[in-house]
């Protein structure tokens, strides 16, 4: 029942927001839906922790600790982003940006907002379905659904550059996901000999995972490669990352934050599910090598672009490429430590990354530019809260102690050493250090410095409290992870490692 | 004498039709007009639907009939019509200018077909002499070839709409793989995929329309503002 509730709430909120006429009603619908969703996700987590996997309709929907974690994180980022979205879009409307978009698209500002508030619940619905679908085909359908719902987010402002970004996103995402579909079909084929069934259960992960040892091995190898390329494209790992900087810099901030956290988690979740099948069928070696290769490559690709970046929105996208690289690398290192590192990183990433986007959004709305060059520095004087939070979250995402990324990245490093990947671990650390210095130079240059004499930033309560509240959560998480959350992560590690 | 479905005959028919699908794909590579490309896609999809129906008939897998009907209705009927409408509304009927000229493109497609056979070969287990395995072998090669050629079309063409067509024909390759290897995915999944393809075409169609409106052209090589 709880599983149905999790799906129905966002699915109902979309059409509801679409038919409402007033802006603040749409805001209320979004906020309420995502708050309920987060509550339901917490109930699901409690159930999973108490009595193991929950399933519905003969296992059509299925939630174990791993799914519950992803659903919980999706719900959390949805709520946080929707709170910030209220302040963000009110500011956009007030400063006439949406009216400019209106001239391009021939629409009114409220219609523009309706587009956002009606589509966001669909995106959240697809994200939740990714976590709850047991059938790997439905999982694919849901991931494709996240792409389709978010294409409109990317083209929201209707500028030439937004269309370009949306086109790249849709086409690269489409090709990538077709590879993932091919991989899914081949997985089904490789299981055919072992399961030999045309029934629905033949693609159910919970069934496949138990029989993975008997799959046809050559087929499974090709299948996993295609899955890695496919869901890897969606996760934005190099060399399939080229859509990411464009999409993240064109989408409105709350939407971009959703793409960078929730949608990224969905793609990685798909990858993890297939990684489990592949390592049970082929042994962990095969998948690990590929994952390590792509993970390190992504981190390496991100480094030069972060060091010389001129645009702070694009900087965030390269940071996201770096982080998905870290998570894929951790999965490749494998073992209980590697998987723990990955899932911790996923959790911390979902909590921390939105704040980085919110700060960048506040700065962009204040300065009306996203170029470092045009910003004069000294933002701490005109926007003290955002400036301080921006500095803090920069330290957090680059993995400096005491923030939580330090723990997860250190765990990943330990996993690398535990598997005797000394050279790779050295690369990992040096990439982290380079990215840290690049980030710090850019953001301190933006925030610190002499007062350029800008007027104080116009910050409404929604923007203020979402930034301050999330900052508090991040600081607390650096020192303390709630016990149930950690037990959930450990449960998920157990599922991936097996046994 | 009543006609008894003979799987052997079925396999021959299917292999023949799969070969036709491949020929159409390569013909699509050589095609220069957008509308004729769309029509080739429609015929190809119709053939795929027919293949699905033949498989359903010879293997008594009734749920594939639904997939066959959906394919014929959606991919051979509705989608081509939508795309042709779009072409009319944007009012562009100029020829497609591929990056690589037509003879060389067709040569490359031939090479990709060979590659498809090489890849499919590695999944062929001669010890399994069942008719299924042989069928899977041939059609998988065609499916991989369709996939690769579709990919090539997307890289080779600069018009937004032909990239969409490339994506769709790539999807056709996947459909062929699914029905011939495993007699179709579970029905729910199949329906989900059709729904996604339909929505994807609508989304891409809207994008193509907006791009055509904003840039006065569907040439995606004009989309190059976002650079490092």
Describe this structure in words.
The complex is a heterodimer of chains A (499) and B (228). Chain A contains 20 helices and 2 strands. Chain A is an all-alpha fold. A two-stranded antiparallel ribbon of chain A has the order 1-2. In chain A, helix 13 (312-333) runs antiparallel to helix 18. The mean pLDDT of chain A is 88. Chain B is mostly helical. Chain B has one domain (7-222). Helices cover 77% and strands 0% of the residues of chain B. Chain B has helices spanning 7-30, 34-59, 63-90, 102-121, 131-156, 160-182, 187-215. The chains are: A mainly alpha (499), B mainly alpha (228). At the A-B interface, helix 6, helix 7, helix 9 and helix 10 of A face helix 5, helix 6 and helix 7 of B.
Order of helices and strands of chain A: HHEEHHHHHHHHHHHHHHHHHH
What's the arrangement of strands in the largest beta sheet of chain A? 1-2
Q: What percentage of residues of chain B falls in helices of 4 or more residues?
A: over 70%
Estimated structural class of chain B: mainly alpha
List the helices and strands and how they pair.
The complex is a heterodimer of chains A (499) and B (228).
Chain A: H1 2-19, H2 23-51, E1 54-56, E2 61-63, H3 65-94, H4 97-105, H5 109-132, H6 136-154, H7 160-195, H8 205-211, H9 217-235, H10 243-250, H11 253-282, H12 284-307, H13 312-333, H14 335-367, H15 379-382, H16 384-397, H17 404-418, H18 422-447, H19 461-479, H20 483-497
Antiparallel strand pairs in A: 1-2
Helix pairs in contact in A: 1-2, 1-5, 2-3, 2-5, 2-20, 3-5, 3-11, 3-14, 3-19, 3-20, 5-6, 5-11, 6-7, 6-11, 7-9, 7-10, 8-11, 9-11, 9-12, 10-11, 10-13, 11-12, 11-13, 11-14, 12-13, 12-18, 13-14, 13-17, 13-18, 14-16, 14-17, 14-19, 14-20, 16-18, 16-19
Chain B: H1 7-30, H2 34-59, H3 63-90, H4 102-121, H5 131-156, H6 160-182, H7 187-215
Helix pairs in contact in B: 1-2, 1-4, 1-5, 2-3, 2-6, 3-7, 4-5, 5-6, 6-7
């Amino acid at each position: 029942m709880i599983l149905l509730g999790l799906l129905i709430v966002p699915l109902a909120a979309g059409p509801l927001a679409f038919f409402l006429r007033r802006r603040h009603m749409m805001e209320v619908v979004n906020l309420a839906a995502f708050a309920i969703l987060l509550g339901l996700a917490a109930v699901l987590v409690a159930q999973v922790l108490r009595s193991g996997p929950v399933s519905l309709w003969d296992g059509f929907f299925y939630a174990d600790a791993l799914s519950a974690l992803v659903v919980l994180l999706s719900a959390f980022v949805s709520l946080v982003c929707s709170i910030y979205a209220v302040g963000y879009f009110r500011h956009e409307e007030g400063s006439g940006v949406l009216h400019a978009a209106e001239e391009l698209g021939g629409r009114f500002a409220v219609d523009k907002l309706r587009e956002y508030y009606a589509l966001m619940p669909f995106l959240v619905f697809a994200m939740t379905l990714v976590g709850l679908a047991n059938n790997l085909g439905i999982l694919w359908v849901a991931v494709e659904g996240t792409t389709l719902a978010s294409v409109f987010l990317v083209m929201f402002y209707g500028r030439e550059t937004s269309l370009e970004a949306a086109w790249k996103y849709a086409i690269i995402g489409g090709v990538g996901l077709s590879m993932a579909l091919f991989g899914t079909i081949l997985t089904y084929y490789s299981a055919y000999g072992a399961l030999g069934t045309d029934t629905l259960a033949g693609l159910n992960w919970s069934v496949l995972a138990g029989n993975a040892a008997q799959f046809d091995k050559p087929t499974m190898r090709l299948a996993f490669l295609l899955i890695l390329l496919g869901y890897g494209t969606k996760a934005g790992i190099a060399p399939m990352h080229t859509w990411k900087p464009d999409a993240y810099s064109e989408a409105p901030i709350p939407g971009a934050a959703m793409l960078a956290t929730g949608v990224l988690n969905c793609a990685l979740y798909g990858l993890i599910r297939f990684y489990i099948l592949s390592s049970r069928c082929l042994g962990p070696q095969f998948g690990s090598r590929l994952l390590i290769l792509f993970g390190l490559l992504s981190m390496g690709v991100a480094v030069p672009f972060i060091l010389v970046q001129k645009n702070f929105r694009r900087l965030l996208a390269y940071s996201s490429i770096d982080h998905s690289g870290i998570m894929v690398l951790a999965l490749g290192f494998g073992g209980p430590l590697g998987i723990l590192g990955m899932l911790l990183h996923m959790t911390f990433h979902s909590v921390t990354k939105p704040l980085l986007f919110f700060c960048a959004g506040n700065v962009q709305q204040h300065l009306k530019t996203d170029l470092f060059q045009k910003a004069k520095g000294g933002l701490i004087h005109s926007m003290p809260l955002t400036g301080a939070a921006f500095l803090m979250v920069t330290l957090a995402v680059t993995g400096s102690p005491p923030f939580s990324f330090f723990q997860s990245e250190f765990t990943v490093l330990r996993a690398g050493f535990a598997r005797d990947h000394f050279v790779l671990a050295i690369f990992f650390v040096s990439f982290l250090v380079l990215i840290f210095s690049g980030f710090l130079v850019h953001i301190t240059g933006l925030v610190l410095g002499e007062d350029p004499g800008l007027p104080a930033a116009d910050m409404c309560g929604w923007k203020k409290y979402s930034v301050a509240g999330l900052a508090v959560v991040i600081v607390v998480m650096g020192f303390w992870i709630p016990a149930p959350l950690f037990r959930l992560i450990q449960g998920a590690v157990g599922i991936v490692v097996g046994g | 004498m009543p006609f008894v479905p003979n799987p052997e005959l079925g396999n021959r028919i299917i292999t023949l039709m799969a070969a036709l699908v491949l020929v159409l794909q390569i013909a699509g590579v050589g095609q220069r007009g957008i509308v004729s490309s769309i029509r080739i896609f429609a015929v190809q999809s119709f053939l795929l639907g027919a293949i699905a129906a033949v498989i359903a008939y010879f293997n008594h897998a009734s749920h594939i009939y639904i997939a066959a009907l959906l394919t014929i209705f959606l991919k051979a009927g509705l989608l081509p019509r939508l795309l042709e409408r779009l072409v009319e509304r944007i009012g562009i009927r100029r020829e497609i200018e591929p990056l690589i000229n037509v003879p060389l493109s067709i040569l490359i497609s031939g090479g990709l077909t060979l590659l498809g056979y090489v890849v499919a070969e590695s999944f062929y287990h001669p010890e399994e002499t069942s008719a299924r395995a042989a069928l899977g072998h041939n059609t998988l090669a065609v499916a991989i070839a369709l996939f690769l050629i579709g990919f090539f079309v997307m890289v080779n063409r600069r018009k937004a709409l032909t990239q969409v067509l490339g994506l769709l024909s790539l999807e056709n390759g996947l459909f062929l793989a699914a029905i011939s290897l495993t007699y179709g995915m579970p029905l729910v999944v199949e329906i989900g995929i059709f729904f996604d393809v339909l929505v994807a075409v609508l989304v891409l169609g809207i994008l193509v329309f907006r791009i055509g409106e904003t840039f006065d052209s569907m040439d995606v090589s004009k989309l190059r503002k976002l650079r490092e």
